[in-house]
């Protein structure tokens, strides 16, 4: 705003308040205006119509006794049609708005627990805006927007919340790991049981094949060689297998050897032992 020789210039987005001998006279819109000071007229001041922003930080306590700092961002502007009220009725607009914000926040937040404060911050902002709109409209101001831009609990509370969250995640991870190990152990046990079952079947079939082969050999030899008994044929077959086994043990340099009493007189005893073992195995199958 500029004033030269009784003329006044009002800038865009502002209005000028004029007085005559100290009494309110008129509101001047942007442009150039004649203001003859000789008749007692003068410019009392200017009023900005631009949107202004005020950040208010308020400390309060939640329902679960946690102290939090809440930052509310208030966007407001003076109304051109109520410029007289905006200019004369309030001496400190920021302090007035801050008082209303404190009052609403400290009345709303103590009713909510900490988690609910984060979830319902839009409701808190709406309550602040409604209260400010109702109060500031009497003073010629419009509340454009109210935002809750930050909710910051006490540092110790934040650390505790992070530790609780970390502990919960570790507990879930431990449960998942234990479940995975359980599945691996079950599968490993099932595989071991299946392996042992198949190995048992293989041993049983091997023994059955040996018994069947010996039986067929004894029957064929008894038929083809008259005068021989089954016992004679069995002794001969077992002795033959015995010496074949001894030959294989002696031919292998890395085999695990089992030494038993050996001699011409012990052959009949070995044959009897082998025959009795195979016959018992055949009867059990």
Automatic annotation (TrEMBL):
Keyword Cell division listed? The answer is no
Listed InterPro entries: Band7/mec-2_domain, Band_7, Band_7/SPFH_dom_sf
Q: Which CDD domains would you find in this protein's record?
A: SPFH_like_u4 (cd03407)
Record has Cell division as a keyword: no
**Short name of one Pfam family for this protein?**
Band_7
- Kindly list any coiled-coil regions of this protein: 157-190
- Could you tell me where this protein is found in the cell? Cell membrane
Q: Which GO terms describe its cellular component?
A: mitochondrion; plasma membrane
Per UniProt, residues of the Band domain are 5-165
Tell me how this protein sits in the membrane.
Lipid-anchor
Q: Per UniProt, which keywords does this protein have?
A: Coiled coil, Lipoprotein, Myristate
* Principal location class: membrane
Q: What is this protein called?
A: Hypersensitive-induced response protein 1
Organism from which the protein derives: Hibiscus syriacus
Q: What is the lineage of its organism?
A: Eukaryota, Viridiplantae, Streptophyta, Embryophyta, Tracheophyta
């Amino acid at each position: 705003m500029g004033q030269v020789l009784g003329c006044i210039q009002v800038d865009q987005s502002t209005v000028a308040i004029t007085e005559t001998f100290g009494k309110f006279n008129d509101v001047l819109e942007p442009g150039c205006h004649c203001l003859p000071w000789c008749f007692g007229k003068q410019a009392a001041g200017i009023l900005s119509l631009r949107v202004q922003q005020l950040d208010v930080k308020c400390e309060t306590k939640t329902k679960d006794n946690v102290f939090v700092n809440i930052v509310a961002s208030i966007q407001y502007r003076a109304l051109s049609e109520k410029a007289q009220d905006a200019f004369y009725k309030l001496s400190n607009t920021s302090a007035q708005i801050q008082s209303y914000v404190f009052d609403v926040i400290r009345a709303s937040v103590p009713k909510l627990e900490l988690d609910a404060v984060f979830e319902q911050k839009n409701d808190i902002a709406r309550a602040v805006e409604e209260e400010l709109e109702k109060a500031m409209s009497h003073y010629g101001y419009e509340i454009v927007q109210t935002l809750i831009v930050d909710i910051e609990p006490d540092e110790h509370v934040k650390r505790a919340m992070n530790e609780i969250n970390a502990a919960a995640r570790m507990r879930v991870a431990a449960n998942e790991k234990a479940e995975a190990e359980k599945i691996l152990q079950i599968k490993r046990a099932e595989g071991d049981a299946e392996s042992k079952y198949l190995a048992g079947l293989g041993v049983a079939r091997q023994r059955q094949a040996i018994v069947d082969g010996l039986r067929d050999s004894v029957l064929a030899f008894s038929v083809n060689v008259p005068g021989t008994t089954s016992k004679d044929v069995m002794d001969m077959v077992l002795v033959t297998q015995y010496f074949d086994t001894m030959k294989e043990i002696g031919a292998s340099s890395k085999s695990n050897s089992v030494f038993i009493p050996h001699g011409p007189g012990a052959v009949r005893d070995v044959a009897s032992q082998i025959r009795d073992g195979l016959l018992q195995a055949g009867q059990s199958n």
